[in-house]
Structures are given as C-alpha cells and as structure tokens.
Design a protein that fits this description.
This protein is mostly helical. The protein has one domain. The chain has eight helices and no strands.
C-alpha cells in the first residue's frame, strides 16, 4: 500500500499516526519550526570541495518530490520551501554561526519535544519517526499543508480517502493480527 509516489498512500500512512485532533494541532504548529530550523542547521554543511550546501539539495528534493506527488499542491508548497531556504541561507551568511545554530538547535529540539508530548499524551502512540525515519521527515511538512488545505475545503474526496485508509492502517499498527483477520 505504501507506494512512494502515491499521494493517497503517503498521506494515509502519515495519518495513521495522527488521528487525534490535539496532536494534529501540535504538529501544525511545530512541524514548520522543525522544517525551518533543520534548513538553517544544514545550510552550514557544504558538499566536499564544492560550495553546494546540503540545504540547497534539500530544497530541490523536497520541491521535486512534492510536485511529483501532487502538481497543484507541490507548486503551492514552493513559496514556503523557497522562503525557508532563502531565510536559512540569509541567516547562515549574515550572522554569527554559534548564535544562529544555538537558537536553531534549541527551537528544533523544543519542537520535537512538543511533538513527542503530543504523540504520547494525546495520540497514545509513538511517533511515525520511530517506525520509519525518512517517510515522516519528508512528508510531515506536506501533511501540514494538506491539513490546512483540507480545513479550507480543498480535495474533500482525498481527505475522506486518506482518513479512511489512515484509520485502517492504524488498526493494523495497533493490532496486526486482529486487523489482518478483518481484512481477509
């Protein structure tokens, strides 16, 4: 089910870990902070013998993947990715590295702490990042954008499908034997 280039599958996989509205709200607040501060942190890393920054590659990969998953939403995400990238480069280029990194790392760690709190307190489930490191790190910012757009009435059929599949996947995660019997 978890097809790498299926928007429905990717959002459903992420939804399976985010069914509680309070936890989703926490993610809406803190995922953008994690995304931004991560870009700041990796803007200090250049590929060997080049001036190419890891944040440049990250911006290109995020943009490309999001456009492949959904051309409309991918294009809508471009200003956010671009502003995040350019802001990180500006901070890296114009301010003292120790100060910028101190604040970026502090905000990043704090935002992760709030997310873990949301998962364990409200979701009663460990975060997706514990089961799959890459998928949630790549999809989390896109998930936030879709949550916002769903709240504004965008793609109601997709939202219903994602919610239905996400709940089913959650049952599989919580009770692998039981859910498998219900499916068969």
């Amino acid at each position: 089910m978890d097809s790498l280039f299926s928007l429905d599958d990717q959002l459903a996989q992420y939804r399976a870990y985010h069914l509680n509205p309070t936890n989703v709200f926490i993610h809406m607040i803190f995922i953008p902070q994690i995304f931004f501060t991560s870009f700041i942190i990796v803007s200090y890393i250049n590929f060997p013998q080049t001036e190419i920054k890891l944040s440049t590659i990250g911006a290109i990969l995020y943009s490309t993947y999001y456009i492949l998953l959904s051309p409309k939403m991918g294009l809508l995400s471009l200003p956010f990715i671009g502003i995040t990238y350019l802001s990180a480069i500006y901070l890296e280029s114009n301010y003292l590295m120790s100060t910028v990194l101190f604040y970026a790392i502090a905000v990043n760690v704090g935002a992760w702490a709030f997310q873990f709190f949301g998962h364990f307190t409200f979701e009663k489930k460990s975060p997706a990042v514990f089961d799959n490191l890459v998928q949630p790190l790549v999809l989390a910012p896109y998930f936030v954008l879709f949550e916002l757009m769903f709240a504004l009435g965008y793609e109601k059929d997709l939202e219903k499908s994602v919610n239905k599949k996400g709940k089913l996947l959650r049952r599989l995660l919580d009770h692998p034997g039981k859910a498998g019997k219900k499916l068969g």
